[in-house]
Amino acid sequence: MSAPVTTLGGVRSSATRSWRQTAGAYFALTKPRIIELLLVTTLPAMFVAAHGFPNAWTAVATMLGGAIAAGGANTINCYLDRDIDAVMKRTKRRPLPSGQVSPASALTFGQALSVFSFVFLTLAVNFLTAVLAESAILFYVFVYTIWLKRSTVENIVIGGAAGAVPPLCGWAGVTGSLDAAPLLMFAIVFLWTPPHFWALAIGYTTDYAAAGVPMLPVTRGAKEARRRSLIYAVAMVATSLALLLTGAVGDFYGIVAAALGAGFLWLTWQQMRQETTKAAMTLFRYSMTYLALLFIAMMLDQFIRL
């Protein structure tokens, strides 16, 4: 029998400790850091759709339902990729390869979250938002994880569509419909995904090769990944500026988007010129900051008119 654990509050039983560790393992299955990034593209879309502050309940319900949906998709992804995760140094400590959660329990948990998110969004927000969130789950699980990830170098290019759905959910949550502005937001995230993930893959090429995942840097080489990253970066920045044409955002957003885009293009160019892992990881880290600040600028633009 394990000895009790002493804490500042007194003595805590090993059973209590085990419950907390188990809860933490299930939470880790949802990949909360990825969910944070997805929500950063959801809430600003709601502000843009509302031309200011969205209804508080709608905002909370959409964000909560979206987080649950993403958590369900990520958990099922962990179940399906548990063999790959066990091989890669970056992922081998995740709950399934480390034995913290059984595969059957993880699958049940992911399915439950996915079903609950659809019911919750349908009842608390609207049917379109629920359908969009569910489509992202199905695309991420069946198209990306099961089909594309292990079979084609275009895995992250096509699969990135799943991660680009949150702005659509945010917009639909407010308006109950879609138009050009949210579709361009979708396109921004879609085009952002390849240079973001290819930069990471360049840093972990050995890991992906050992796991047999045909990421572009593994199959075509880092040089080709850097070249194509620049192409996608140019298209992404152009799309981010095209959002101005919809009238959904104004000059403040345009200035921020241009500045952030210039930084992204510069780092993508540096990555191609220097051909180092350090340059790739610098781009990877900046790419997360870029996406967050770009969407925050959309939100702030509703209150700052130049």
> What percentage of residues falls in helices of 4 or more residues?
over 70%
Strand order of the largest sheet: 1-2
Q: What is the CA–CA distance across the termini? A: 67 Å
Q: What fraction strand?
A: under 5%
Give the helices and strands, then pairings:
Layout: E1 5-7, E2 10-12, H1 14-29, H2 32-50, H3 56-80, H4 82-87, H5 103-124, H6 127-148, H7 155-163, H8 166-175, H9 180-203, H10 205-211, H11 216-219, H12 222-242, H13 251-274, H14 277-301
Antiparallel strand pairs: 1-2
Helix pairs in contact: 2-3, 2-8, 2-14, 3-5, 3-6, 3-8, 5-6, 6-7, 6-8, 7-9, 8-9, 9-12, 9-14, 12-13, 13-14
Q: Can I get a quick summary?
A:
The protein is mainly α. Helix content is 76%, strand content 2%.
How would you sum up this structure, described in words?
The protein is mainly alpha-helical. Helix content is 76%, strand content 2%. It has 14 helices and two strands, in the order ββαααααααααααααα. It has helices at residues 14-29, 32-50, 56-80, 82-87, 103-124, 127-148, 155-163, 166-175, 180-203, 205-211, 216-219, 222-242, 251-274, 277-301; strands at residues 5-7, 10-12. It has a two-stranded antiparallel sheet with strand order 1-2. A hairpin with a 2-residue loop joins strand 1 (5-7) and strand 2 (10-12). Helix 2 packs antiparallel against helix 3, helix 2 (32-50) runs parallel beside helix 8 and helix 9 runs antiparallel to helix 14. It is globular.
